Structure formats: C-alpha cells, structure tokens
Amino acid sequence: MTWFFFGLLFCCSSFGETLLLKDLAGREVQFPRDPRKIVGIGPGALRLLVYLQAQDKVAGVEKMEKMSFRGRSYWIAHSELWDLPECGPGGPGGINHKPDPASIMMVNPQVIFVTCMDGPLADEAMKTSGIPFVILSYGEPGGSDEVLFESLKISGKILNREKRADDVIAYFESVRKDLDQRTRAISRKQRPSVYVGGIGHKGLFGIESTEKSFIPFSRVNAKNLCEDLETRIGNHLFLNREDLLRMNPDVIFIDGGGLNSVTEDFFKKPEYYFSFKAFSERAVHTLLPVNAYGTNLCTALADAYAVGKILYPAAFKDIDPEKKADEIYTFLVGKPVYESMKKDYGPLGAVVPFLKPEE
User: What pTM, to 2 d.p., does this model score?
Assistant: First the structure.
C-alpha cells in the first residue's frame, strides 16, 4: 500500500517543529516533533512505545493496563507505569470506539498513538479533542512485518527515536533470519506436526483455542496443522474437539495464558487427553503467553527459540531458551524479565506440570 511510504515535511510554528506525515490508515496529520507527553490507546500501543524507549513520555495509561500485568513484559519491566493516571478504560470493549475526551484531557497529551481504530473515527476523535491521533498497526497475522516496521518508523519520527526504531527493526530482522537459517533446510518429513492450544482471545480458553498463523511456529518453519484451515474472522480458531483429536499432532504446545484452563479440563477428562499421541508420550510443552492485550512480540520470539529447541534440538544445540528470552526482553523492554514470567507461567518449553512423572 502506497501510504506506508509516508511523506515527511518539517515546518515551524509557535509550538516548535512539527511533522506532516501519513499514518497506517493513510491519514495525513500534523504532529509536534518530539512531544513531551503522549499516550498509547488500544491493544499493543503502549508496548510499541516502550520498545522505542519512549515510556518516559507516557502521561497516562488505560485502566486495562493496570488490571493485571501478568504476561506483559513491557509492564513488568517498567513499574513506574503503575503511578500514571488513567486515560480511559481500554480493553476489548474499547476497540474502535471513540475515546472518552474527559479522560484524555485529564492527562493532556500532545500526541495519541492508537491501534485498532478506523481512520474516520480517529479524525472525529481528533476534531473533538484537538489532539493529533496517529494510527498504528501490527499488520495481519501471518503477513509481512512491513506494516509493523512502518508503525515503528512513523512513531520513531514523531518521538525523535528514529535510531531506536531502526535498531528495533534490525533486531527483529536478525532474529527472523537466525531462526530461518537454523530450520529452513530441515525436510518436511523430519518436522514433527505441531499444534498450540490455550490461546488467549478476548479472554482465557482451553485446548480448543488456537491460531491459524502462530509466530513461534512460522518463525521456525514448523508443520502447523492449522495453517491451512479457514477462519471466520482474523487469525483465531476454536476447533471442534473431535476434529482436533483426528489431527493427532506429534507435539502439542500450551500457551501460558490458557494453561490453567487446560489443566482443569485435563483432570476432568483425562481419557480424552490421553487419546492424543502427544499426551501419552509427554510431548506437551508450555509456552509463555503470546497474546496479552495485543501480540507479545518479544515473547513470541522467545517462544520461537523454545519451539525450535524442542522440535529440532540439533539445530538449536547452542541455544538456552531461558537465557535467550532474557536477551530478547532486555533489548526490547529494557530489563531481563524472564524470571517474573517464569514465576507466573512456569519454565519456558517445559513439559506441562500435570504430565510430569511421579518421583
């Protein structure tokens, strides 16, 4: 799409230097360059601001962000965000809804970064508040990273974080290339079939909740049994339990967000679970949650290394997934937060606790 190649214009005003650029919805908006006060609204908006090391500019956070920090590395790494005032409710109910002007004005941001909002609604909200809105996007699941990268570039221009945006993009690219180079030559016959259950989708769910395109699988060229299935909306799927049983994947991964739900269901219906080859062979492993108010991009990369280590141990013999997770977290959110994630969800890549043999 041509608007991803945004135009840039420097000009002067009584408010200092401003930028005229196109956001991810193709809207041409004028922004103050290097604003002192900003907010992020919608799933994943605040995460991108932290990746760009702009958390010191954040003037307020959504109530949703304060409800629980579990699974969100950017929040774990920056406890100072707790002290910020609320700038609206956020959460699934706030997606593509006009923000509350009173809540926004209480924190008085100079720029609002927003995800999951249509252009006309952003224009209306901007007219009401008098504050520039920039629409960002992570892109379509399973699609190119270019949309995400353009979001980082645009935000970097506004925030005077161009170098950091370039560094983050280069890091994502280096990880993608490393994972691909380790796995692309492995023949399909040598790749175990895989499935991930317990995926969060506007709430927590059990083993039947999955994704057609799952970053930790696609990054290591895994044989995802769901990749050719059709979805009704977006990337998420709820599978029929009998259909899942007929798939009978070689290896099953459980997203940490749904681990408790799967555990409870396992003890209610153990005969169903042990009908799977993966459960009978203890080839069921935990991952850290990929979805927590948007896609946890850093966690998805950490999970990918764990998946690669489990599926292709020879190709990942030099990788310690736990150390790699902290390397990723440190670069993207500024602190090694893996131990906190491990405390909440268990060791990355471990066999699920309820299948561990008795000592």
Answer: 0.92
